[in-house]
Amino acid sequence: MPASVEPRSGLNYGWGLGESGWNVAMDANLLTLGRFGFHLSVRDRDLSAPPANPAAGDSYIVAASATGGWAGLEGRVVVWTGSAWASAMPRPGWLAYIEDEEKLAVFKPSGWSAGVGM
């Protein structure tokens, strides 16, 4: 088990030398970085149900009253892995480019901002 969780990113760290099991948490760290850590861009943020045929890597911000595979994920960022939806709770300061609106939006404690046009 990792000794600590970094509070800003939620990533695990601090394994003891030779400690077993680090690979599972490290794999989760790398997947989190790959999915959510680089210039977040989402296709849409006002859908409450997943699209019928997403491509691997397609990302969205889930709208209110989510249904289907997004039920219970309102406000979260989701990424289609090719076989399932991975999700992360945004942290204050996350910046996302909303592709269908051509706007930048920031996540605040009150939720996503209206955004600024590009």
Commentary on this structure:
The structure is a single chain. This protein is of the alpha+beta class and 118 residues long. It has 2 domains: 1-38, no CATH class; 39-118, no CATH class. It is 13% helix and 31% strand. It contains 1 helix and 11 strands; from the N terminus they run ββαβββββββββ. It has one helix spanning 22-36; strands at 4-5, 12-13, 41-42, 44-47, 59-62, 77-80, 85-88, 95-98, 103-108, 111-112, 116-117. The strands form 3 sheets. Strands 3, 8, 9, 10 and 11 form a 5-stranded mixed β-sheet that branches. A 4-stranded mixed β-sheet has the order 4-5-6-7, covered by helices on one side. The longest helix is centred in the N-terminal third of the chain and has 15 residues, at 22-36. It is globular. The termini are far apart.
